[in-house]
Amino acid sequence: MTDLLLPPPILHPVPTHPAAAGSSPDPTMGSSLPTEQASGLDLLSGDHTGRESQTCSVPADLLPPPIELPDTRDAPAAGPSPTEPKLPPHSKPPAARLDLLSGDHSPLDTHPLAVPADLLPPPSHGPHPIRRPAAGPSPRAEAKLEPSPTGHPLRLEDALLRIYADTLDDLEKTRIATTNRIGALQREGLGDSPERDRLDAIAAGLAALEHSATLDLQRAMRKHPLGPWVKRTAGIGEKQGGRLIATIGNPAWNGLHNRPRTLGELWAYCGYHVIDGAAPARRKGQRANWNADAKMRAYLCAEACMKGLRKPCAVDEDTKRAVHVEACGCFPLRVVYDDTRTHHADAVHAAPCCRCGPAGKPAQPGSPLSPGHQHARALRAVAKEILRGLWLEARTDSAEVTR
Q1: DSSP letter at 20?
Q2: What number of CA atoms fall less than 13 Å from residue 290's CA on the CB side?
Q3: Dihedral of the alpha carbons of 39, 45, 47, 48, in degrees to the nearest 10
């Protein structure tokens, strides 16, 4: 019953093998060609029928015209020749003939066919090969490891001081945050409970680790080349001095340009330079071009020097300035602070000042400086003096090393 429903097989014309240009066709390649694949199509299954050994006769007027291809076996590979066929973009070169009956490709020749580069299909967008760097240190790493003629910016003492200072900063921040959380829970009604005791034990452990890191930083500061200067400078301890030096590195060396650093560059790196006659300040939408950590560390060292006031010197309640007697026992940097405040006692603003005026109404040019502004200028002068002392000591140490 199934054989009655099947239509007769469909015979398709079979294209002939293209003949070479200028040659006569092969008499054996006439209109009768052997079919190596099936000529009938099974419409129900979608598959080709079995192979046949008989030949099918196709009229010559139904055969497609032969395709003439140039013989490129002896042609040079550079540049396309005028006789080569022009194919549309993104099309494959005619390197094989497609058998319409079998759907297979049959090679035209055993020799490879040279195809111009402009006729090749576009490359696939597959994954690119991973380019691994060559073995050995990179030129940038070699440049960083190269010892400098002066200053020795990559000293081991600087690296250890930086590690100890960063560790202390992390532990200090964690201890402060944990203590604040415990206080917040206590205000919310945690009270005396086992949980409170465990949290207090964690805070105590963090405080012990912070103390241990502080001792390590102080020991590293004593072994540092700038340790003697910190020890003999009253008002600057090993802890604050070590954290300042760890932030700025070698005060006498410019690591960005690999050359000695000037004092003005050190001040500018720490944010104590002058722009248009005024101290720089952070502004919205602008990126600061100084190291905020170095500026903070220098400011904290300057504030610590304010504790060096000794009797009989005392602060005047009206002017908020100390009056120093001759050969007093006050810290030298405290004397710098009071001298700077005396110098700016009658100073006026050269530009509008937001520090001295109320919110939204800055002080106008020509108005006197407020006591807070005078205090800030004096602390700025002390911080710059601290950086000057570090810079001079680092230059002396570098000169001794390179002798």
Answers
A1: P
A2: 24
A3: -20
| pLDDT for 320 | 78
**Separation between Cα atoms, residue 281 and residue 376, nearest integer Å:** 13
**Dist CA 154 CA 148 (whole Å):** 9
Contacts 24+ apart (CB under 8 A), 320-325: 320/371, 320/374, 320/375, 321/345
Give the containing element (helix H, strand E) for 230: helix 227-232
Q: Across the chain, what does the average pLDDT equal?
A: 74
Residue 220 to residue 160: CA distance in whole angstroms: 7
Q: Cα–Cα distance between 96 and 108 in angstroms, integer?
A: 6
Element (H, E) at 252: none
Length reported for the chain = 403
Q: What is d(CA 155, CA 225) in angstroms, rounded to the nearest whole number? A: 10
Rounded distance between C-alpha atoms, residue 156 and residue 220, angstroms: 10
Instruction: Indicate the SS3 state at residue 296.
Output: helix
- Count of beta carbons in the 10 Å neighbourhood of residue 20: 14
Q: Does the pLDDT at position 342 exceed 80?
A: yes
Distance of CA 155 to the CA centre of its chain: 25
Instruction: Please report where in the chains the tokens 């002080």 appear, as a residue.
Output: 363
Q: Which residues pair with 253 in a beta bridge?
A: 260
Highest mean pLDDT among 88-102, 203-217, 307-321: 203-217
pLDDT in tens, 113-171: 455 666 565 654 444 444 444 444 443 333 333 344 334 446 788 899 999 999 999 99
List the beta bridge partners of residue 105. 98
Q: Can you tell me which residue has the tokens 């700016």?
A: 344
Whole-structure pTM value: 0.60
Which helix or strand (DSSP H or E) is residue 34 part of?
Answer: strand 32-34
Residue with tokens 């020097």: 305
pLDDT of residue 319: 78
Q: How far apart are CA 320 and CA 316, in angstroms?
A: 5
Q: What pLDDT does 272 receive?
A: 94
